[in-house]
Amino acid sequence: MMDKIIDGKKISENILEELKKKISKIGQNKIGLAFILIGDNPASKTYVKMKQRVCKNIGIQSYYLELEKTVSEDEILIELDKLNKNNNVHGILIQMPLPPHINEKRIIYAIDPKKDVDGFHPINLGKLMLGEQDIFFPCTPYGIKILLERENIEIEKKHLVILGRSNIVGKPLFNILIQNQKGCNATITMLHSKTDNIKKYTTLADILISAIGKPLFIKEDMIKKDSIIIDVGINRIWDNEKSKIVGDVDFENVLNKVKKITPVPGGVGPMTIAMLMENCYKSFIKKLSL
Ligand code: NAP
Question: What is the pTM of this model?
Answer without folding.
Answer: 0.97
